[in-house]
Amino acid sequence: MSRKRYIQAINEALFEEMERDENVILIGEDVELAIFGDARGLYERFGRNRIRNTPICEATLTGMALGATAAGYHVILHMMFANFVYTGFDAIANQIAKMRLMTGGQIEIPITFIAGYGGGGSNAAQHSDSAHPVLMNLGGINVAMPSNSADAKGLLKTAIRSRNPCFFLEASARGGQMGEVPDGEHLVPFGKAAIARAGTDVSIVTVGSTVRTCLDAAQTLAEAGIEAEVIDLRTVVPLDEDAVLASIARTGRLVVVDESRDRCGAGSYIAAIAADKGFKSLKAPVKRVNIPNVAIPYAPGAEAEVLPSVEKIVAAVNQIGARRRAA
Amino acid sequence: MNVAQASKLQSGAEAMPDKGTCLNLYSRMLLIRRAEECLARLSQEGKFPGAVHLYIGQEAVAVGVCSTLEARDWITSTHRGHGHFLAKGGELKSMYAEIWGRADGICRGMGGSMHVADFSKGILGANGIVGGGFAIATGAAFGAKLRADGRVAVCFFGDGAANQGVFMESMNVSSAWELPTIFVCENNGLSEFTVSSTVTGGALVDRARAFMPTTIVDGNDVLAVRAATEKAVARARSGKGPSYIECITYRIRGHLEAEEAFLAGGKYRTAPEIAAWQTPERDPVSRFESFLGRQGMADAAVLSAIQQEVADSVEKAVAHAEAGEPADTKLAYSLMFAGQEA
């Protein structure tokens, strides 16, 4: 184990996978200078044929990633901010997510998209979205959302070795967060949630940027005598439903925490699964802590108002009457 | 461009290919024509489930372009993609089976007419999104450039698609990085049910001229299309970058079959306008047939043998499609991802 920042772990994964496979190339806006830090040093090591700045034209870049697979490349397309998923959406939604089905399985589509997401930095509405709900709704795209350094490295390496299109969403606010990363080869499989903290009284199911917030909330709850179990989904496509259902079977209560808007958001989807398949385990209504149906405001106070927080999570847990179990 | 203007474009006859090549051009155009006439008829009879967008009248473009390509080269196609598919070597039987929604269709019944694709032959798919092929062709060309393997990517698109923003973006990338992308604009004057000139500013060729060498050819003259493409392919293979070829042509059938149902009595063009492009001098198939006769390359017996062969393949393909098993109804679940259930 060694301690590394979240963004360093991502950088390490990129280095290792590009060393391993010469068909992996990384393109995107400003990647040569590694504006986000995640691509640092790659240009110097691999050169312009494998690391390349592109014009600012997401609608074309996403389609090009697909075209380049025909020449045997695995393109890592760095899209900067998750909001730019929308500008590049046609090829993502209409081509990449559908091409394997439409061709009767003639092709595999190894593409990894990287994009930073989430609020907390006064980046305002067009640079703070979490685009995972729209991606989840497409069907043919995997979506990985690491919460810590070890998973950041392990999930990205899995994405780059995968034969399927995958979005690797970096929690923008977590880039500097330190964490232990296993030494040597480290891969984290898709669709396997982690129990970030074990508990008996309430399940808090979350992913990516809000896992840290949930762990902090669990600490606060523990001080009040409530043992919360925090489930880190790691990937939302595929989604580890079994882990969610097993957790609520243990606790009987569920709070879903997710940094996406409430309407048709990831948290709302998970709440629906719990209501459908975990109904017998539930002793109280499922609560959702997510983003109201608004754009993310700029001013720090106004932004904090709409983001999930320790206080909101604790309040939600208290609302559904989670109590320490009688001994 | 109207018929009179198109007729003034230079003939391709100066760059005469040999007799064998010419007969192949003819038989491939005729195959597309007959295959689509058959689809028009059977569509009306309700023999297959979805809509078809027919290519009749534009055969010289697909055939002229693809006759210059190698098997390893790529094409991206459009919603009007049967002609491109067949011209690049796609199999008629498996295309028909696809349109019929059969298990042995080229896409196992999962794509249908608008998505016929055969990646093993470099056919990166017909595409239901107007302009959907620009970026895909550019990406494939980028791959070829990185590998320096001399492959080229041809993007077929219409004048309607040229009003999509990705047209400019893809030309920009192709030009900036000298990619082997060949932009083939099939200018048939129509954007679905709208006359293109009413929604288009300036000349399309001027858009391309900002980025790369351009040429405008009579798209109903297979030899002219072929000659222009040969130049573009040579330039692309030698690493010099993209080209733009605008083929002036005309769509004889509606935007899709049975368009009358959508038009509900409305019109976007006149019968005389259509007829002007169907004369023996304008129609790409019949004019090339006369040309072969005049050149002494094919007498009535040779032509009739080709016609018979084409008719037989269409007939066999229909029988094959009719007899096919329906597509696997559960296949979608396993096809969304490689090695992963949806």
Structural write-up:
The complex is a heterodimer of chains A (327) and B (342). With 327 residues, chain A is α/β, with parallel strands linked by helices. Chain A has helices at 6-20, 42-46, 58-69, 84-87, 89-102, 132-136, 149-161, 211-223, 241-251, 266-277, 300-306, 310-319, and strands spanning 2-5, 24-28, 51-53, 74-81, 111-117, 142-144, 166-171, 178-181, 194-197, 202-206, 228-232, 235-237, 254-261, 287-291. A seven-stranded mixed β-sheet of chain A has the order 3-2-4-5-7-6-12, with helices on both faces. Chain A has a five-stranded mixed β-sheet with strand order 9-11-10-13-14, with helices on both faces. Chain A has a two-stranded antiparallel ribbon with strand order 1-8. In chain A, strand 13 (254-261), helix 10 (266-277) and strand 14 (287-291) form a beta-alpha-beta unit. Chain A is globular. The relative contact order of chain A is 0.12. Chain B is an alpha/beta fold and 342 residues long. Chain B contains 14 helices and seven strands. Chain B has helices at 3-7, 19-44, 59-66, 82-87, 92-99, 133-147, 165-176, 204-209, 222-237, 260-263, 271-276, 284-294, 300-323, 331-335; strands spanning 74-76, 153-158, 181-187, 190-191, 194-195, 214-218, 243-248. In chain B, the strands form two sheets. Chain B has a five-stranded parallel β-sheet, sandwiched between helices. Chain B has a two-stranded antiparallel sheet with strand order 4-5. At the A-B interface, helix 3 and helix 5 of A face helix 6, helix 7 and helix 14 of B.
